[in-house]
Amino acid sequence: MKNKTWARASVVILGFFITAGSAFATPESTQKLIGFFDADDGTYAVETVLSIEACKALCEADRPTCRGTVIYQADVTKPDMQCRLNDGSGEEPAFETPVPETLDFDKALSDLNAYRILKGVPALTYDERLNRACDIHAHDLATADIISHTGTDGSSHGDRVQRQGYYFSIAGENVATGQMSWEAAFDSWKNSPPHNENMLRDDVSQFGLALVYEPTTSHMTYWAMIVAHPLENEYSADVN
Known about the structure:
This protein is α+β, with helices and mostly antiparallel strands.
């Protein structure tokens, strides 16, 4: 490949990026000319294909390992091309792996409570047990690379909350994947009627929140929020 002329060598890079609030990838492409490949760019497999569409299909069939593709066509007058499947790793990765903003719990609490007060419902407080229940579920989703309210052990959010010693009169859960910031997750929940309803419940007083980042998965980020109100006898137990 080193002997190919620049005028007859073409490379198409197809990037697959997670859109906020969605588990699906959207294709984006650019084109540039290069002479040959010698960098540690995250290529883990090379296949010969006859079209860009065939290369894209190979990548989608191997998700989440495949983050994107680099197509090398040594001679643009011939259909044969190299489809380089890329996992985003390496010292000079062809595809940068996005990193989410660090979750600022104080800001999340402030934003959610400002939103609730604006809508005429009282503010909430964090509860560490609810935080732990959220964190456990977010880690479970990341491990399985799924979005679900049901844990891989069959648990409901109520089960997970009670396992942390929190006994409730009401509890609701929001989950989301793919958002790279608290603001994006918060907006996606506000724009979804059932999730928005959970955040604006007037019969809850506490909540928990968690974010888990796992770059080797297709969704990369996994969010969980629980809003709840404890049983009255739990208040009594705390006082006594």
